[in-house]
Amino acid sequence: MVLLDGKLLSDNIKSELAAEVDILRERGGKIPHLAAVLVGENPASQVYVNSKIKSCEQVGFKSTMIRRPAETTEAELLEIVQGLNNDPDVDGFIVQLPLPKHINEEKITLAIDHRKDVDGFHPVNFGRMAQGLPAFLPATPYGIIEMLRRYNIETAGKHCVVVGRSNIVGTPISILLSRKGYPGDCTVTLTHSRTRDLPGEVRRADIVVAAIGIPNFIQGDWVKEGAVVIDVGINRIEDESRKSGTRLVGDVDFEAVAPKCSHITPVPGGVGLMTVTALLMNTLKACRKEVYA
Ligand code: GUN
Hints:
This protein has helices at about 5-25, 45-60, 75-85, 105-110, 125-130, 140-150, 170-180, 200-205, 255, 270-285, and strands at about 1-5, 35-40, 60-70, 90-95, 160-165, 185-190, 205-210, 230, 235-240, 245-250, 265. With about 290 residues, the chain is of the alpha/beta class. It folds into 2 domains: about 30-115, Rossmann fold; about 140-270, NAD(P)-binding Rossmann-like Domain (Rossmann fold, 3-Layer(aba) Sandwich). A 6-stranded parallel β-sheet has the order 1-11-8-7-5-6. α6 (about 140-150) crosses α10. The protein is globular. Bound molecules: guanine. Guanine binds near residues 94 and 96.
């Protein structure tokens, strides 16, 4: 069994990005600049946004963090988005989700200029991705694709079962893995809460992508011998043996599943780190105008 090491891969990619920044700096080119907007006090969101800003610093990107209280109105947030859309120094930006309940997330996502939408959440990017046109890919699916590529995992003709149909992971990764080329050319089954016989579907998979958000959901006897298992879950559960009283687990029962796999991602240390790195890759593409001229 091979552990798909998100830390090693993201460190490698970050070194490559840092080298690109050095070249840009030597040539007097523009340094990539990512802005992140965080509204409210959601603890997980604070951790994610801090990690995005820290990663920018590691590779030499410019970053701007915009923090606003939970009481911020939708109109105020729309104004911040417009400001970032119009700021020529900002190459790409994200508005961290979830937003406080009184703010319509769809309205905010639609207000972001798709040319700066390095999260790949805007329907223009989603639609272009689905049609195989150049687009900003959503960070988690992009990170998974990059992981499969860099570990040379065969995908053509493989049966991939995706568990979970969210707009930001399950649905886009099912599209990306079914499209022509590498990594891709999979036969994809997209499963969800209404799927009949989920264990039976997962048992047919050569590649499993678990993105359902339920701790330790995928059981040992659901996974075919030699399967590749990509665990997207980041779930905090109680663990009294830890000083903090909690620990992070994925959507896969790692202890039971790992011995059966050819490859598996750990949690933490797998897909999560690749997600942040994929955001950096998108920001460089935005700065270089590789997706939109
Ligand atoms: N919330 C959970 N994941 C994400 C993400 O990738 N981007 C943003 N903006 N919010 C999130």
